[in-house]
Amino acid sequence: MKNVYFNCYENFKCLAGNCPETCCSGWKIEIDSKTLKSYQTTNNEYCKTILKNTKNGKFFKNKKDGDCPFLNKEKLCEIIINLGENYLCEVCKNHPRFIFNLGTIKEINFSLSCEEAVNLLLNEKNLTLTEKQVDNEISPVLLDADRYLWLSFSRNTILEHVKSADLSMQELLSTIIEYGLILDKNETDLTNNPIQTKSNLKLTESEFIKILSVIKKLKIKNQELIYFLSFNENDLNFELSKNKNAYKNLISSLIFYHFYKGLDKYHVLTIIKYVVTEVLTIATINTNLQDLNKSIRLFTREIEHDDKNFNKLISKLNKINFYN
């Protein structure tokens, strides 16, 4: 078994009570069957407390303010304090990691709703993928082998291009979109899909404004994000030159995480358009906020991690070009 992840996350460590935010609020935390069984069979009074704070043993009952019932005033987990980390459900053990099982390979990416994960990503000067052999049991999965190889080759091509291309951010995003158009027409060919070092396309503000109008209509709860989405056309930021390396790392992370959704859910071009949309929207939010880390976390929590918002945006992107 081989784990694959970005080098910046090698030494990730949760900030726990020192984190200015918490990942233990605002989520519907699912309890896996193995963890539920451990609560039901362990002779411990605190396990009984846990079971009283679940919805039919499937989810934890959040407090009225959205906090997990086991998050204390010091922003620490009472389950860990009383029972240890082994009694956390799988979601809590893994978070902020997202693990994608490919049989002999497990790809690990980190949620960009986590401040420390975003901080490590944005500050990495030489972002590379790390491969590490582990002794974990191989979990068989059913994959379309040909499509997986095509997606893997195409994704690696984009990641290498993002890292090495000496282009402005607008030109870089344009070349990625143009590559997406090529892939959309040649969904099996591994050899005749080169990525261009210069694009014939140009991102157009008029089309991107259509996308922003869709985003503004999504069901966003965070009042701060609603405020920062209330910009006018003059706030659009297409150059992204102030934090070029950070934005390149962001693009790489999003391509790495989302690309294999092309195995069974989405067209590759749609995935690429989503990545470009997220980057440009974050840059536009950051024009006002002037805090790239927070801009990324706000978008991730309210749009990318909200299934209804994400699917609505993906659906709309199928009908919008935002390039000429």
Textual characterization of the structure:
The longest helix is centred in the C-terminal third of the chain and has 22 residues, at 268-289. The chain has a four-stranded mixed β-sheet, with helices on one face. Strands 2-3 form a two-stranded antiparallel ribbon. Helix 7 (169-185) runs antiparallel to helix 11 (268-289). It has helices at residues 33-41, 45-52, 78-83, 90-94, 115-123, 145-164, 169-185, 205-216, 223-228, 244-258, 268-289, 292-304, 307-317; strands at 2-6, 54-55, 59-60, 97-101, 105-110, 129-133. With 324 residues, it is α+β, with helices and mostly antiparallel strands.
Note the main attributes of this structure.
globular; 324 residues; 4-stranded mixed beta sheet; 2 domains; alpha+beta
Low-confidence stretches: none
Note the main sheet: 4 strands, mixed
Strand pairing plus helix content: what structural class? alpha+beta
Count of domains: 2
Determine the fraction of residues in helical runs and give it as a percent range.
Answer: 40-55%
> What's the end-to-end separation, in Å?
44 Å
Quick one: overall form? globular
